[in-house]
Amino acid sequence: MRHLLSCADLDLASTNALLDLAEEMQQVQSRSVKKLPALRGRTVVNIFFEDSTRTRTSFEIAGKWLSADTINVSAKGSSVSKGESLRDTMMTLDAMGVDAFVIRHASSGAAAQVASWVKAQVINAGDGQHEHPTQALLDAFSMRQHFRRIGAEGFAGKKVAIVGDVLHSRVARSNVLLQQILGSDVVLVAPPTLVPTGVNEWDCEVTGDFDTVLPEADIVMMLRVQRERMAGGFFPTEREYTERYGLTPERLAKMKPGAAICHPGPMNRGVEISSAAADAANSLVLEQVAAGVAIRMSVLYHLLGSEEGAIR
After folding, report:
1. Are the CB atoms for 158 and 184 separated by under 8 Å?
2. Which of 143, 168, 157 is nearest to 221 (CA)?
3. What is the pLDDT of residues 114-141, one digit of tens each?
4. Is residue 153 located within the same domain as residue 39?
5. CATH number of the domain that 25 lies in?
6. Model confidence pTM above 0.85
């Protein structure tokens, strides 16, 4: 495999290999000199056609800590703003001898399309409402560390509840795929208007009853209400949404002992998650952010750090 475009590109062995190497990469974050020579001489271009803080920054840090030459390109600063097509932009950059592209784009399938055009390796940093594989990997990394802290072994038999705006979430799609690979039972919790068409093919439980699922869940992953992708009224008011699908202080108190909270960020505090839940002792939100650098270091190394240039 030359690219990482979807969690469907992974199997259990490759997923565990990425998570295990990320544990080693995480140790770099505590060093006084945060640098490894693994990707010296390699060039990684982070090209983001959508705004991003966590993903873009963590990929940039990951590349630099592995000694790769890391370049950031945004749509506003590229020839795309002058009307150049995505194909021409990517092929122009590819002709400069780039080794890998980390791409985020508003259109589903854009990363796969770019991979068919260029010689460089491609990492999908989020494409439309399709997928975000490295986010699912860092989520799994944080969950695995949490399970180990409470004395649990692995993901088998664990219930992961993914709650909220599933319709517009690429994170949800990637997490469903990856958690199934790892052996978790996934349940999607959302109002009917925010459940995607064809969800019956995802091979997971779907419900609109958060209060029934909550006491049984080992991980509660809250999804952001993506107002920027909503062209119509998907629920009457934010207050009503919070009452039925928000992780309020009252619901926080009803969580299963040992259960943890995840959120891919950015958070709408007071809508899908309360400040009490976001900042709770069992919240993994900041751990997820920290894991982002380690996971992206692992992905870059697996793709670019071997002669074969493949995840193995």
Report:
1. yes
2. 143
3. 999 999 999 999 999 999 999 999 999 9
4. no
5. 3.40.50.1370
6. yes
